[in-house]
């Protein structure tokens, strides 16, 4: 924001909406819809995670959906007052961080998917998918959290530093997801060559789960790619002031991932991942 608008707390003739960082009032209908979607998926992830005892998956996906819901709550606050600092800070921090937690949920399941299809076809040992990609995701979250915290302070000397940290965190996340995608495509090709009926033999439920997870991963990836040029343009850039692009390439992408990860929940369609299943399997061999 320009220096002489630093004291603005509400829209007035001296503090027009065009002078805010985004230059618009976030549209109420779309942001309420996204708030409802993320609120419902938060509940779904919490209930299903508890039911199937997927503690780690429950934690990251519930946090991810909850952060999105809070972020869109912040945007709704900004509809009534685009100069609202609490609303601005809430949506900046929450919407920036949330996708990383959903990506972590996908990373947590990869080890079990590889074991199911055959670890001999993977370039990495199954456990390394969790350690490497969840570790990289944690670095991304920490970097973006630091950047979001500085940016939300809304002080001229901190905005650019915060922006650079956010871009670095997202760029690192994109690189991590790309490497993961390459490894998984390679794994899928090797499985197909060795066992051409591998998917058919797994059953429709598991195939649905794998396909839904792949689409979720892709939508999160698209969102992260969009965020790099959007943030690189700086605060108040033309791209950052385009709400339609944001709602489609960020909001809709992550909403799609959250919905798919709730409908195609691993506890329902991939029971081998649950601690309950692992315990029963262990007891059967005693």
From TrEMBL:
Keyword match Membrane: yes
Residues that span the membrane, as ranges = 32-50, 57-78, 90-110, 131-153, 165-185, 206-228, 248-273
Alphabetized InterPro entries for the sequence: RTA1 (IPR007568)
Provide the alphabetized UniProt keywords.
Membrane, Transmembrane, Transmembrane helix
Q: Which GO terms describe its cellular component?
A: fungal-type vacuole; plasma membrane
Question: What membrane topology does this protein have?
Answer: Multi-pass membrane protein
Q: Which domain of life is it from?
A: Eukaryota
One matching Pfam family: RTA1
Subcellular location(s) of the protein? Membrane
- Protein's name according to its UniProt entry: RTA1-domain-containing protein
- What is the species of this protein? Acrodontium crateriforme
């Amino acid at each position: 924001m320009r220096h002489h608008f630093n004291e603005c707390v509400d829209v007035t003739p001296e503090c027009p909406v065009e002078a805010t960082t985004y230059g618009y009032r976030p549209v109420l209908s779309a942001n309420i819809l996204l708030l409802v979607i993320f609120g419902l998926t938060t509940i779904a992830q919490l209930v299903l995670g508890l039911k199937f005892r997927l503690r780690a998956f429950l934690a990251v996906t519930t946090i991810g959906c909850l952060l999105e819901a809070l972020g869109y709550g912040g945007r709704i606050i900004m509809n009534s007052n685009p100069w609202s600092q609490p609303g601005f800070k809430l949506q900046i921090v929450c919407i920036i961080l949330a996708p990383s937690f959903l990506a972590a949920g996908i990373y947590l399941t990869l080890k079990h998917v590889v074991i199911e299809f055959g670890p001999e076809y993977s370039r990495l040992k199954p456990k390394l998918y969790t350690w490497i990609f969840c570790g990289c995701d944690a670095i991304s979250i920490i970097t973006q959290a630091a950047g979001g915290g500085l940016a939300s302070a809304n002080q001229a000397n901190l905005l650019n530093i915060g922006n650079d940290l956010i871009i670095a965190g997202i760029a690192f996340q994109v690189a991590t997801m790309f490497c993961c995608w390459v490894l998984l495509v390679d794994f899928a090709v090797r499985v197909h060559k060795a066992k051409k009926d591998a998917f058919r033999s797994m059953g429709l439920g598991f195939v649905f789960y794998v396909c839904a997870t792949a689409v979720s991963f892709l939508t999160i990836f698209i969102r992260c790619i969009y965020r790099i040029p959007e943030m690189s343009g700086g605060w108040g850039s033309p791209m950052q002031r385009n709400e339609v692009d944001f709602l489609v390439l960020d909001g809709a992408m992550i909403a799609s991932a959250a919905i798919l990860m709730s409908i195609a929940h691993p506890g329902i369609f991939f029971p081998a991942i649950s601690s309950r299943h692992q315990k029963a399997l262990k007891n059967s061999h005693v």
